[in-house]
Automatic annotation (TrEMBL):
Purine nucleoside phosphorylase involved in purine salvage. It comes from Streptomyces luteoverticillatus (Streptoverticillium luteoverticillatus). Residues 9-251 form the Nucleoside phosphorylase domain. This is Purine nucleoside phosphorylase. One of its GO terms (biological process) is L-methionine salvage from methylthioadenosine. The lineage of its organism: Bacteria, Bacillati, Actinomycetota, Actinomycetes, Kitasatosporales.
Amino acid sequence: MAETNSAATIGVIGGSGFYSFLDDVTEITVETPYGAPSDSLFLGELAGRKVAFLPRHGREHRTPPHRINYRANLWALRSVGVRQVLGPCAVGGLVPEHGPGTLLVPDQLVDRTKSRAQTFFDGEPLPDGSVPNVVHMTFADPYCPAGRSVALGAARGRGWEPVDGGTMVVIEGPRFSTRAESRWHAALGWSVVGMTGHPEAVLARELGLCYTSMALVTDLDAGAEAGEGVSHEEVLRVFGENVDRLREVLFDAVGALPKTADRDCLCTRAHDGWDLGIELP
Ligand SMILES: [Zn+2]
């Protein structure tokens, strides 16, 4: 799909705080072979780029991380023309150096989720009768290197020294970790813990999309702090304090991402050598 003809070429999966004040937002509903995404897509223009915003938990924040229809979300974004996705998210810091207010752009991911559909290639026929083949994606480097470098540059441009790289472990939730789990995660050298980064990243890769995670630390995880453990109030408070500058960084990053046709990263080669068996939107 040519860039000019697409409804959007860049997708942002995040909360309503990222698009609610944009001028001229168009809301569209998109159906997918996997059901409905978390919410409508909200289309807007930013730095001359067409962007589709998708509230990950729904606009009322009603869908918990383990119930999000990640497949529908990624499929819906691709179906309107999106080829690069920015995924801001709130995480816990596993070590004291990554305290509240830290922005970390991870380069690695560990999946500790339990119950989530995490592939499009599961042998289930699509409504059009096509059947996905068995496909094993290369996922050694789960994030787009070009998108990572754009996100890091955008953060530095706003005076926010980001952490360049680190491992995000994704837990099933919705509960927070026990102290033992948290200390275990830290002892393995992992940096931050979240609940939505998987399977978002791998599903993006399966669709040949660039995916960049931008992890805002809202709290120290249970093993790294001395109080009573993570509370939801604390998470919301720190997120609220940082959402404005995260939005500025995000918007600068949107403007700095390569044009769709100029992408030359490993994400664009995800399907090389594979017969998918299905037509991607
Ligand atoms: Zn890429």
